[in-house]
UniProtKB/TrEMBL annotation:
It comes from the Bacteria. Transmembrane segments: none annotated. Residues 46-226 form the VWFA domain. PROSITE patterns: VWFA. This is VWA domain-containing protein. It comes from Streptomyces tremellae.
Length: 242
């Protein structure tokens, strides 16, 4: 399932400086280049972002890392999605809240929303995944969904997540929803995500980009890590429909 695991891990003798954060226009250009490298030209997808708000994520919200991730995904969506916006779902024990970031309204939105959502709970992946799937189904979009799912640890609902992935490939409630899940893992606690490689699903709809130190991941690394499996999947889906 994970054809290639992109990992930015290091035990450096000196801590590298965090990359300079690019503008939205620069991010849009970088995302376009990554998509072209992966072979995409003109195809569309609806982009969703699901963000972990479990207690261990606190530092990534406070230092702006999650806000910048949302900006990067908005840059990706500007190349894939017609409306120039990204629905965002915050999850922990439950779905904590939702919002939409757009070209005209994205600066500081994640930090602002997080500060209003209160208690940071546990890590129930299925809550966030289902919320994004429902958003896509209710949108009536005729294009596949790219769900970028960020987390920093394994889920508390492992069995439900595995069951849900089987549903996504057409074995249950979500049959007929074209959706690809690109996991973005902050830190090293990604053992569960690696086990998804041996599920034996009939349709490969999951990828993993691991960022041991997300504050030091470059834009190019992130985009390549998300697109390297999503683009071939999208092209295969479209070819099969011709």
């Amino acid at each position: 399932m994970f054809k290639k695991l992109f990992t930015k891990s290091s035990t450096p003798t000196a801590q590298p400086a965090a990359p300079v954060r690019a503008s939205l226009a620069e991010l849009t250009t970088k995302a376009a280049y990554s998509l072209r490298k992966s072979g995409l030209s003109g195809q569309r997808a609806a982009v969703y972002l699901v963000l972990d708000r479990s207690g261990s994520m606190r530092k990534y919200y406070s230092d702006g890392t999650v806000q910048y991730l949302a900006e990067r995904i908005l840059g990706l969506a500007r190349n894939l999605d017609d409306d120039g916006s990204v629905p965002v779902t915050f999850f922990s024990t439950e779905v904590d809240g939702t919002l939409t970031v757009s070209v005209d309204d994205y600066a500081g939105r994640i930090e602002e929303a997080h500060s209003r959502l209160g208690h940071m709970g546990r890590t129930f992946y299925a809550k966030g995944i289902r919320a994004a799937l429902e958003q896509h189904r209710q949108s009536g979009a005729m294009v596949p969904a790219l769900i970028v799912f960020q987390t920093d640890g394994g889920p508390d609902d492992r069995a439900e997540v595995i069951s849900l992935l089987h549903e996504i490939v057409g074995e249950g409630e979500y049959e007929g929803i074209d959706a690809f899940i690109a996991f973005v893992a902050f830190g090293k606690e990604v053992g569960f995500l690696r086990t998804l490689d041996v599920l034996g699903l009939k349709d490969d709809r999951v990828s993993l980009f691991q960022a041991d130190e997300p504050e030091h991941i470059t834009d190019e690394e992130l985009y390549d890590g998300i697109t390297h499996e999503f683009v071939p999947w999208l092209l295969d889906r479209q070819s099969a429909r011709r």
